[in-house]
Amino acid sequence: MPPAQRDHYSVLGLLRDASPEEVRQAHLEIARRLHPDKNVAAGDTELFLDAQRAYEVLSNPERRAQYDATLPPEHETHPALRHQITLSRPHLYEIAEPQVIHALLQIAPRHRAQSLSASPINVCLLLDRSTSMKGEKLDTAKAAAIQLIRTLRPEDIFSLVAFSDKPEVIIPAGDRGDRRQLENRIHMLQPSGSTEILRGLEAAMAEVRRSLSAEMVHHVILLTDGHTYGDEEGCLELAGEAARQGIGMTALGIGLDWNDGFLDALASRTGGTSDYIFDPADIRRLLIDKFTMLTRVYVDDILLEQDERQGIQVREAFRLQPEGGPIAMHKPLHLGPILQDVDLRVIFEFVVEPSALASGPIPLLDGVLRIAATNRTDRVPPLRLQLALDVQPMQKPVQPPDQLLRALSAWTLYRIQERAGGAADSGDFEGAARSLEYVASRLRSGGQSTLASTSLLEAQELTQERRWKGSGRKDLKYGTRALLLAEGQDELR
Amino acid sequence: MIACSNCSHENLEGSIFCAECGAKLPILDAAATPSAEQAADVEVVARHEPTASSAGSKPWANLHLLEAGHILPLSSRPEFTLGRISEGQPIVPDVDLSPYQAFASGVSRLHAIVRHEGDRIAIIDLGSANGTFVNGTRLPPNSEQYLGDGDIIALGKLRIQLLLHTP
Q1: Of the candidates B7, B31, B68, which has its C-beta nearest A394's C-beta?
Q2: What confidence category does residue A489 fall into, taking pLDDT thresholds of 50, 70 and 90?
């Protein structure tokens, strides 16, 4: 059914700034496609008439100007961002059971050519110094911290907080004193105590908060190798607070004995992600990469604020790039950063209940994308995000666009693997093993034989020994995640 | 619900992959008979899997996406609009090129029409922003240009080769 309330531009599928030629072409196309002489599908004639009316107004400059004046302000032509949505199918099904539909949202700077000069960064490195870090892990981390200090630009702010069961500010934010002295303080760091992340996080946030200027990219990088006990909830709350203040978080886990689910939850509250460092020798590279990335940030964090609508739910979302990772399902959704040269790409899974179906387009997405840091919103208006789908009788389904298909394939694997982890945690080792066997066969048919073998080995271990073997669990999690990233690669560059 | 043929798991309608085992679910549903137009759309989208493009109608031309190496057969209908789906706009081109970096290549939402009359195949630029080129020469908008086998069409920077015989 053609909705009466759609404005003339959307009837013709045009943006508000369409040229007269675009108006003409759009009308021509609709006329050709929907001409009553040629089409019989229900609703087509109404669409055709709507298009006629729209064309009559928009093709006449005077009438168009008058009409434009009656429209609410347009959000679609956003000065800083542009976005694109790819759907797994163009319509919702008219069925009496729940259905899923997938969407790939891509957000990019509107004018890539005139990208901003690199923002100064305000970063706190929060370093686990508990006894388990002793040896290569702490030594490499210290060396990396020293290297980071040397790469700072004059406008950057760096702080270093070491924590075990209590935090210690090793380098306060903004201390740009004698470099040798700073480096000595890092050298003298010794391992001791246990891991209590909350206290460390509080101290790190305090350092970053010393200068919350809008011009800077604020970030806490947590480097840990252990579990924190009992203070997880407090950590998550603090991360939520950080997100509201425009402070991002990255969590790097070293070795095997850390809680990936918790670190993911922590970082994703701020639009950040966790990463896995198997070999301590990689600490330096990952930290340097992270720093470099922070200097290329165009927007720290994009928020999706959606109106709740009965029967339509985002069940899960995953950021494909930059820095792939799950999106925390806390409202508003923190989708993550946009880099100057890497778009933000997020894949969504919607579940639509039959109760949400009605005649006329169903708003799958109806909200705004907002740039996170509150002190920036006055300069960058929110970007309206609207996507309404028609409901049609179920037909032969349409193959989704390739890029979405590949991303969905990899995402499915990642999620099955995550479910295996959850099943094993709750004692369902048979279920976990079965999932991992499925993952193994998918990986094998996708040519990922090393990961496939890991998956199969872990399945056997879970069945026989009721525990994970070695690094398999994290190898699988971050390995399948890396496959997703490969599918999300920015092909535009 | 769609039952997975690999593991029998019941997936929600609209699922593409089985949530239980990751197998691709059949893209098939007997519930409704698609109309002629819809059938044509499905066929285009099903592209580069010629076996999947049902009903045996032989393509009258194939679009060879040079960068991606994919081939899109055109059949059933005498003409197809080429373009890209954009931001939930209601106008959808017959052939959506967005999986082929259409946005970055400067393909307009409705960029061009490819049509055939008898043996002759022609392309019409629809006043696109970045132009349609045939073998390097930019076409004036809204006028027909006949095409031959192997001609290179560029929609903006997206290069497509016209193949008249299925490779």
Answers
A1: B31
A2: low
Q: Indicate the helix (H) or strand (E) that contains A251.
A: strand A247-254
Nearest to A104 by CA among A89, A81, A84: A84
What is the rounded CA–CA span in Å between residue B43 and residue B58? 11
Residues A213, A94, single domain; the answer is no
Nearest to B29 among A397, A412, A415 (CB): A397
Q: How many CB atoms lie within 10 A of CB B30?
A: 7
The answer to whether residue A5 scores a pLDDT higher than 80 is no
Which range marks the domain in which residue A153 is found?
121-295
Residues of B in contact with A24 (CB under 8 A): 127
* Statement to judge: residues A381 and A233 lie in one domain: no
A 10 A CB-CB count for B145 gives 18
- List the CATH number of the domain containing A338: 2.60.40.740
Which pLDDT does position B91 carry in this prediction?
Answer: 67
Beta bridge partners of A224: A253
State the virtual CA torsion across A303, A306, A312, A317 in degrees, nearest 10.
Answer: 0
Q: Indicate the average pLDDT of chain B.
A: 77
* Among A59, A83, A85, CA closest to A347: A85
pTM for this structure? 0.67
CB B48, CB B72: distance < 8 Å: yes
